[in-house]
Amino acid sequence: MADEKEAEKVKTAWTPEQKIQGFKELVTAILGVLVLVCTLFLAGWTFCYVGEQPKMTNAKDVLQILLGVAGVVIGYYFGRVPADARAAQAQEQANTATAQTEQVSAQSQAVADKVERVMDKVAPATAATRGAGAPPADIATDLQSIRDELRALAAVSRRRR
User: Left if phi > 0, otherwise alpha if psi is -120 to 50, otherwise beta: which for 51?
Assistant: First the structure.
């Protein structure tokens, strides 16, 4: 029972990077909310100065600055969600490509091994039956060429990981 609780704690424990990222997100969210609240407050407060030209001009100048900052905050949060989704999708595609590369490497290595076994069978048969009905001599050469190409393909896929 205690082991299960400890295992659950380990699963839910945050890594230091996750803690730092969470702290950054919290600070960014607090600052963003503060900027938006101040902007909305000053926008409402500006309506109190309608008819008082000097105060209205000053309030509009301050509000104009805060509206730009509020636009940046809103743009950041609305732009970040699609960017995070695209990043997750790109990571998934990279993982899929890596898995496919590994699969191609393994398959090409397996086929190269099969060709090697066929070459081992063909070489003695070719030597024993030279002359009458022997398979053409270039079969072994062709098989070696195929084997070498498959091994090169496997090596290329290993290097790209």
Answer: left
> 1 lies in a domain?
no
Convert 138-151 to b/e letters by CB count within 10 Å (16 or more is b). ebeeebeebbeebb
In a domain, 6, yes or no: no
Note the pLDDT tens digit of each residue in 100-142. Answer: 888 888 888 888 888 888 777 776 665 665 554 555 666 777 7
56 occurs within a structural domain: yes
Residue 62 in any domain: the answer is yes
With a cut of 50, which residues of the chain have pLDDT below it? 132
Residue 103: strand, helix, or coil: helix
CB 39 within 8 A of CB 66: yes
